[in-house]
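tool=predict chain=A
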Amino acid sequence: MGVRPGDDPGGGEYERAVGVIAAGLRGAGPAEAPGRLCAAAVELLPVDGASVSLRGDSMPLQLAASGAGAARLAQLQATLGDGPCHHVLRTGAPVLARDLADGACADRWPVFAQQALGSGVRAVYALPLGSTAVCVGTLDLYRASPGGLDAHQLHVALLVAGVMTVALTDLPYDARDAGEGWLSGLAADHDRVHQAVGMIMAQLGVGADEALARLRGDAFAHDRTVLEAALDVVARRRRFDTP
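tool=predict ok
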């Protein structure tokens, strides 16, 4: 992410941030690193939760979160197909939403803003993971009170995002070959969603985009995640061609 010690407006706080991140990652295997980095972000920044999601073929895939609340908000964005995470994945530019109760945020993400506010979240900061050319995912930070990040806090957030990017893109091949990579369970979840979309396409005779929209709508209507709704379809507990 282009973070250099000499650029740090917080002076010695840069060294503290590096120390917290290093301590959090100490002894962590590949599957543990994303969650450890989310926890480090919460410790270092004035936020109450953090999650990391990867770009998927049709929707972002939640990789890890600092807690259940942050995980739910990441899943909410995936279910709705809207929110700061999606804007970052489309543009590669960070989103710093200082107050979801502000009219501009309500107009931009009407359903997500309403749902997030109902969950006690007032501000969301979404940062891209990757390079200026390719955004591979997002680091999303959630805060219960309105407000922005000052220059030093944004610098620390970018540092965490940069470490997360390196961990994602530089994961050793031997870890992948040993089955310890962080994408094994995630890939299985992604496959279930695609399988469910295919089944809905066959049931309704519609295209993939409409089938995914139907799945998302059903999940939202029943206060479930897309994955939970997809598992019901795959297990044949839910059909879309019957009342």
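The chain is about 55% helix and 15% strand. The two ends are 50 Å apart (CA to CA).
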